[in-house]
TrEMBL record:
Leader sequence residues: none
Activator of Hsp90 ATPase homologue 1/2-like C-terminal domain ranges (all copies): 24-151
Record protein name field: SRPBCC domain-containing protein
UniProt record similarity statement: Belongs to the AHA1 family.
Record Pfam families: AHSA1
InterPro entries in alphabetical order: ASHA1/2-like_C, START-like_dom_sf
Length: 157
């Protein structure tokens, strides 16, 4: 099982930052972040439609969370990437009544026999109670469920 990611102070309410060491080389971690057949093992439904191409759009689905104004459907667009180093995507709730416009950036750094993976999830509105609830839920989800699922998928490769 992969180690639990380190926590950082929550002083910037607009952003979630996760720093996770993975005992796998960057090339392997990159594959898990960008190959649809591997993404489906740890990301939301719809990740099988991912394509590593700037401008590519696809849809992810999960459980709706009315207390955070999340419809359960995320429109995703690939914004930028550097092979084996960085992937940036935009997430927006598919329901126009739920004004989310978030950027998710994955950065990989070779470290020893593994990879230091950084996740930065930006764009939360600290003046919106629903956005702060979404931030709280997603912060916990990124650190526990998602990183654990990614680590397990990497262990199976």
């Amino acid at each position: 099982m992969s180690p639990v990611p380190q926590s950082e102070p929550a002083d910037d309410l607009t952003t979630i930052r996760v720093d996770q060491f993975l005992p796998h080389p960057p090339a392997k971690v990159w594959r898990a972040l960008t190959e649809p057949e591997l993404l489906v093992q740890w990301q939301m439904q719809g990740s099988e439609d991912f394509r590593l191409e700037v401008g590519h759009q696809y849809t992810l689905t999960s459980v709706p969370r009315p207390n955070s104004k999340f419809s359960g459907t995320v429109d995703v667009r690939v914004l930028a990437y550097e092979p084996e180093r960085m992937l940036r995507v935009r997430w927006a709730d598919a329901d126009p009544a739920n004004p989310t416009d978030w950027t998710i950036t994955w950065t990989l750094e070779h470290e020893g026999r593994g990879t230091r993976l950084f996740l930065v999830h930006e764009g939360f509105d600290p003046d919106d109670p629903a956005q702060m609830m979404a931030r709280k839920i997603m912060d916990g989800g990124w650190r526990s469920h998602v990183m654990r699922a990614l680590g397990n998928a990497l262990d199976r490769l």
